[in-house]
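Thread: quick sanity check before group meeting

JM: Hey all, I'm pulling together slides for Thursday and realized we never actually wrote out the predicted structure for the chain we discussed last week. Dropping the sequence here so it's in one place. If anyone has concerns about the input, flag it before I start.
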Amino acid sequence: MSELSDKNLQGIPMKPYDLIREALMVLGGILIVVLFLAAFWGFPGRNYWPLTIKEVATKAPVAFLKRTISYFDGTSGLQTYGPPYTHDNENAQHIGPVCPACWAGVVFPLNAKEDLVMQPLKQIAQLDPSIAKALATYQEAGSKQQMAWDTAYTTALDKAQVKNGHVILPVGNYGPVPILMNGMLKFARAGLLEAALTYNTNPKLAPYETDYTRALLYLGGNIMNTVATHFHEQGYQWGMTHMAGPWPGAWWLWSYSFWYQIPLANSPSADLINFLIFVGILLLGITVPFNPLLRRIPYLIPVYRVIWRDWYARYPNGDPSRPAKKSRER
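JM (edit): ok, ran it. Output follows.
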């Protein structure tokens, strides 16, 4: 230690402490516990693999088609989400003039219809003449006709039936939309849609593409909400502290997830409010040494005297030069 440390600690009893040995003991103990639990229960996530577009298209084709047509006709929330995808700043989370997303702006421009549906359809059309013909018919129609087909198809999905993996719609005038949507469904079931959404996202990175934003966004909305509710991972369900399945999750995030349990969780800007509250508390803790009121709390609530009760039993004033007076024997 330094000369100043030696001077400040003069008269205070010291004892040797092996930090490396304690760290190794803790690490060894944790390793034993992990191996013991793994031997009986295995890896927690072994039965719950990441949700994929292929899985949704195979197990819930109607849900997949509803999500796809919402991008196709422009009715999904993603089309007007705001930064970082679109310029709809009014929909960005904000508290008065405080709008961090607006300040950052659109850093990932996204045209949901073109990027999530039309681009894959154009790739499919190169291999399937029926898709190419249907796509040409749709693009040649006027905007009113396109909207009429889209609306009719969306309404029909509520009454659709699934038989042997095929989605059967009531009789109606849907134009080429069913052919296009069935093409997307087959493409997704083949496990190719994720790759199509990822391809050429950033030409500078090709062929080493690592940006999966589009593929992750595709299953947003009702699909992800349904899955999150099933696994108790919604914000109002303390979702950050949970894990898929009957295993403990990130319980240490309770201080962040707590704020989603109070009325502000119903606010459209709940994420921003939660973040600002958490940052405020964090800054409050960091600035304790500089806050004359907060740094007096240990003196007002002397928990330290309980922790170091043996020391204060010998030195009530905390000064080793002034030990407690011994009572005289009679």
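AS: nice. The radius of gyration is 31 Å. The chain has three domains: 16-46, 53-222, 231-286.
JM: adding both to the slides.
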